Amino acid sequence: MSTDIHPTDTHPTDTVTHDEHETHAAHEVSDKQYILIALFLAVLTAMEVAVTEISGVPEALLIPSLLIMMAIKFFVVVSYFMHLKHDAAIFKFGFYIGLGGAVVLYAAMLATFHFFIG
Q1: What residue spans define the domains of the chain?
Q2: Coil, strand or helix: which one is 84?
Q3: Alpha carbons 65 and 2: distance in angstroms, whole number
Q4: Where are the alpha helices (DSSP H) in the chain?
């Protein structure tokens, strides 16, 4: 633990060093970036809705395209809004395993329902 505390700090018990503060500031996302990310997610959601509403899209393309868009949205939300982009690799691994498990479970459910219906 370093005793390099900012001279303007009024709390002597503050343990945040100058280097830690700079590292934290480098990882912050600005309001403008959050707005751009939200707009990107809105456009991607509109694309998902549009793909489902277009009647000429074959089912062989519908499900994979929706899964790809879902994965992109998952990575963006987890990376920026949950700040996983700057976390340890073990946390990233846990989320990616969760995504893989969700896709496998969804594919299994689709296969099951398609089997019983068709």
Answers
A1: 29-117
A2: helix
A3: 51
A4: 18-27, 31-53, 59-76, 89-117
Quote the tokens at residue 64: 């994979």
| Amino acid occupying residue 62 | L
What is the reported pTM? 0.58
Enumerate residues 6+ apart whose C-beta is below 8 A from 66.
48, 51, 52
Radius of gyration of the chain from its Cα atoms, rounded to whole angstroms = 22
Compute the distance between CA of residue 101 and CA of residue 98 in angstroms, rounded to an integer: 5
Nearest 5°: phi and psi at 75? -65, -40
How many residues does the structure list for the chain? 118
Instruction: With H, G, I as helix, E, B as strand and everything else as coil, classify residue 17.
Output: coil
pLDDT per residue as tens digits for the range 76-94: 887 788 777 777 888 888 8
3 state DSSP class of 57: coil
Place of tokens 């480098």: 26
Ranges of residues in the chain whose predicted pLDDT is under 50: 21
